[in-house]
Write a structure and sequence with these properties.
single chain, 190 residues, alpha+beta, Beta-lactamase Inhibitory Protein, Chain:B, domain 1, 4-stranded antiparallel β-sheet, 4 strands, extended, Outer membrane protein assembly factor BamE, signal, BamE-like
Length: 190
């Protein structure tokens, strides 16, 4: 004959079942990834590794590259290409990607074609200027407007006159202390 169950034991099992089910649900939800805002309970923000690959090619750099330049000149301006395929020796690919927390991910590809050792053409999307690129990856929320470091003419005139130290007659009569003329050697003597 089965052992009789106690009524208070059933209530305790039901009492523990709800928190256990809630904890299991939270654990399974954590396995599925983070929420769309990548924040848990509005408090914890996971660290994301900043991924930067390739060369940044800006509008100013692209303006300096002209057809007829040698490979060495193009390399000096744009840097070494990310992809230089031995099967396509007349093509260099400059691929750039960046994923930075707090900034929109960016990806660009610039293709440089050569005829022998001479630049033939450059295929590139609309590239940002250097200033625009830096502004797009700047994740500081504070303003970086620095105050001017020079005083205007009106500010200089408003400054108090410097206080001059009164020269005492005793200090004027004393000669300056003589500095030693002999210096120790820099290396130890043997």
């Amino acid at each position: 004959m089965p052992a009789p169950t106690r009524p208070h034991a059933r209530r305790g099992a039901r009492f523990l079942a709800a928190p256990a089910a809630l904890a299991a649900g939270l654990l399974l939800a954590g396995c599925g990834g983070m929420s769309l805002t990548d924040r848990m309970l509005g408090v914890v923000t996971p660290y994301k590794v900043e991924v930067v690959q390739g060369n940044v090619v800006t509008k100013e750099q692209l303006a300096a590259v002209r057809p007829g330049q040698s490979r060495a000149q193009v390399r000096d301006i744009l840097g070494s290409p990310l992809l230089a395929d031995i099967f396509h020796a007349d093509r260099w690919d400059y691929v750039f990607t960046i994923r930075r927390q707090g900034a929109a991910p960016q990806q660009r590809q610039v293709i440089v074609r050569f005829e022998g050792d001479v630049l033939k053409s450059v295929d590139a999307p609309e590239l940002p200027s250097e200033r625009d690129f830096v502004a797009s990856i700047d994740t500081f929320k504070t303003s970086r407007n620095a105050p001017p470091l020079a005083l205007s003419e009106a500010q200089v005139k408003a400054l108090p006159a410097p206080a001059r130290a009164a020269a005492t007659p005793a200090a004027a009569e004393q000669p300056a202390a003589e500095l030693p003329r002999r210096y120790p050697p820099l290396e130890g003597t043997r």
